[in-house]
Design a protein that fits this description.
The chain has helices at residues 2-8, 13-27, 35-48, 55-67, 83-87, 111-114, 124-145, 155-178, 180-187, 197-214, 223-255, 261-265, 271-285, 290-299, 311-318, 322-342. With 350 residues, it is mainly α.
Length: 350
């Protein structure tokens, strides 16, 4: 829809510019001093940010925007009088044609993944412009946000902020799509029986989006250099966290009396076997009382506990003696061992 909109814009720029001028006189001050850009933005705003249905909706939107901190990479040049004219020299909020140009191929991928890599590769100048526009639009939205008031909410200001943020997201998505092959090439190297490609890819895309939001194009180097480090570090951390979680759960099950020595030694435990072990432990833990469950999780670093908790730390938390915590831990492990004996795990792997 966006591309269709911008392709239609050149058909009558004068007509749209006049409409923008009328909108300016009708609603108040313009968003941009650049006439063609203001006309393009007004038309875009009317499409993506329709009139608010009621005063109640307006009040809710105003309150939500006031409570939301907008994150962007600022630049002193954004505040200069000709910033919009320089950054949007073509007079269009969003370019009408983004297809074409160099494309890369990612080998050995199914069609649904290959489609993720169809976006145009950006040159250094195009990349710089995308980041400038994305952050300028967010900066502009933040400027308008400071004009909002719960006492006198303005529907046109709210709509303009919404449109600016939607346009900024368009540029962010463009940068994400153009770097998808980078994410795929990184996460493929970490795939094994314990770490599926789809899960690593999802985490990698989230890391890429975060990298786009945090990247400062003013530093002078290409985004791919920064994104590679972010995605690789995030993927490595996820793999190591999952490996540690498996070791903790396997150790906990072993302590509870279930014989998993073969799986613990073998690096090729099937995913089905792993899920069965994990589910078995969760079921047995649910049979313990609140204190016992807390102690077992804390002592074996399960769930949200990233580090093994000492007996003294747990004693302070529960308001009992260190010896009492030791007794509760032993009682909990005895219960887990009895539960494991009641329903032994099958010998064969799933």
């Amino acid at each position: 829809m966006v591309q269709t909109l911008e392709k239609r814009t050149p058909r009558s720029k004068k007509t749209i510019a006049k409409a923008g001028v009328r909108a300016k006189s009708k609603r108040g001050s313009a968003t941009f001093d650049h006439v063609e850009l203001e006309a393009s933005f007004t038309h875009y705003c009317q499409l993506v940010a329709p009139e608010l249905e009621s005063d109640e909706t307006l009040a809710k939107m105003t309150k939500r925007l006031l409570a939301t901190e907008l994150e962007f990479i600022g630049n002193p040049e954004f505040a200069t009088a000709d910033a919009a004219s320089r950054i949007f020299a073509d007079g269009c909020l969003i370019p009408g044609e983004v297809e074409g140009g160099a494309r890369g191929k990612v080998p050995d991928l199914p069609s649904h993944l290959a489609r993720l890599c169809e976006a145009k590769l950006l040159s250094a100048d195009e990349e710089k412009l995308v980041f400038q526009r994305m952050n300028f639009l967010k900066w502009k939205a933040n400027q308008l946000r400071q004009l909002l008031s719960l006492e006198t909410p303005c529907g046109w200001t709210v709509r303009r902020i919404q449109a600016l943020l939607i346009a900024a997201d368009w540029y962010r998505d463009r940068m994400v799509k153009s770097n998808m092959r980078l994410v795929i090439s990184i996460v493929k190297k970490f795939v094994n029986k314990q770490n599926g490609f789809d899960d690593l890819l999802s985490d990698g895309i989230v890391a890429l989006i975060r990298a786009v939001d945090k990247f400062d194009v003013g530093l002078g180097f290409r985004f791919s250099t920064y994104a590679t480090q972010v995605v690789r570090r995030n993927t490595y951390r996820r793999v190591m966290e999952k490996q540690k979680e498996r070791q903790r759960i396997t150790l906990s099950i072993h302590e509870s009396g279930v014989d998993v020595s073969d799986e613990h030694r073998s690096p090729s435990m099937s995913e089905g076997r792993w899920q069965e072990l994990r589910g078995r432990l969760a079921t047995m833990l649910d049979r313990l009382d609140r204190r016992e469950k807390l102690i077992v999780r804390a002592r074996f670093s399960l769930g949200g506990h990233r580090r093994v908790q000492t007996l003294q730390r747990l004693a302070d938390k529960l308001g009992v003696s260190k010896e009492r915590v030791r007794q509760l831990e032993k009682r909990a492990l005895d219960k887990l061992r009895d539960l494991a004996l009641e329903s032994p795990l099958p010998e064969t792997e799933v």
